[in-house]
Amino acid sequence: MIRLQFDKVSKYFPPVRGRRDSEGVQAIKDVDVAVEDGEVVSLIGPSGCGKSTLLNLGSGLDRPSGGNVFVDGQPVDGPSEHVAFMLQKDLLLPWRTIRKNVEFGQEIRGLSAGERRDRAMHFLGLYHLDGFANHYPHELSGGMRQRAALARTMMMDPDVLLLDEPFSALDAQTKMVLQADLARTLQEEKKTAFLITHDLVEALALSDRVLVMSRRPGRIIREIIVDIPDRNDPMKRRQHERIGPMMAELMSLLDISKTAEEMAA
Amino acid sequence: MSQRDAAPCAPCAPAPYLTGHEPVTLEDAKARQWSWNFIFRGMSHNWVLSALIFTVVFVFWEWGLKILEVEPFIFPRLSKIWEETVHMWAESELLRHTWNTCLSVIIGFVLGSLLGALIGYLFGMSPTAEIVASPYILALQIAPKVAFAPLFILWFGYNETPKILVTVLIVFFPILINVLTAVRGVDPAMVSLARSFNASRWQIFWKIEFPASMPALFSGLRIGATLAVIGVTVGEFVGGNTGLGYLLVQGEAGGNAGAVFSTIIILTMIGILSYCLVILAERWVLRYMPKRKFGDVNN
User: Fold this and answer.
1) pLDDT digits (tens, 9 = 90+) for A26-51
2) Whether A79 contacts chain B with CB within 8 A
């Protein structure tokens, strides 16, 4: 069963009115992606290729200018309770305690205070944050804050998780710990995830498939099936012998050496 | 133990003579700080310095003026001001006038703050409202509000209303600007997050924009608290027969510099008190904010 589908999706941003130097931008063009139930698919591509645009379309925060987005076979026409997203910024509200932040989404959905509290404590425990329920975000480290953001996302019990470079602001070690937390959760809860990332190893370590996007206007130019075991254990997967060759292939697809030359010139 | 306490003694040496043109390096700045610490070793030099300055001012005001033979109707000594205060307390109902001024400050400040915040949030949520209404608001701000006081007296007579209106007009603008800037500056990603949970416009306001504007609202309230005293005083200057502004005008008419100084000091204390009350409220409301340490670069 297909959970998340982009069907010939295009997005054009018209020029800003009243600004002479502003030009329209074709962010993405005819993107076809289908993510099966329980699958983790990563999307990589050069910066500015429209990856985040795709995520906004998937979460219903923005509408495509062409094509259709489906979640569970239903066309997306606004934010859906089956979809939750997580960004590079933790977006914790500084005036709320960690528990209140984790409860935030369900509070808006109107879940009763008692039930909200119990569920929030459950998820905080799951991500080793139960000792910090009554702390404010500024009192936590970057890694802990991002774990709180993950708890808030999982608290919504979404079918589909949209992740936009969720760990790119973290240091290398913290990142690996959080990747492991995420991989474990995705496996245990059998969630479907669409992960946008710059980090090639992260894409390979966490996903079943990696999609490569071209420069703007973004199109999917390649799909790599990551048929390596241990999707729930990225630490182990990182060390697998086939990660190296796959990295090499991704690097050539992304023209990384060419980009480096252009920048040097 | 702070870094300063652990300082080696070399920087305690007298600072070299400066012509004022040398580049001031971080080392220079540290050396100067250390030399203060050298003088008041083991004490927090902030308190000592403050007490010292206070004493100097106090002594000069009382005995310096006497030695310099400054006329009391030009600049009265502290003891003369105190005498005058006691006199006004007994003869001119100083307490009643002070209370009247305080009440006007509170009412004017609360109404002005509510109005400013209300318009600020309205403009923040509706750019159209801002475009349509802001020229008038701006004109109102640029026009000298003090000059409105006689007009208000014409309209409402010699009572409390004119001075409260002047105060409201003075107070509301800084609060409006602070709130508006804060609502505009809310991280759009936070709003997107709320929208992804299907939050209504009202929920986005109450749960994101309103709490996010709190630090800015309190900056506005701090300014407003001090302006409120000015507003009330001006209102009392122009008309009415109550309040410290009225006593001040009376004192001036009688050539009584002591009375003028006395009311100025009481007005200042009311201003300081209202500012402190706002800070207390701010500390309580913004208790989630990281505690700032003076001089801490990371904050």
Assistant:
1) 888 888 999 999 999 999 987 777 88
2) yes
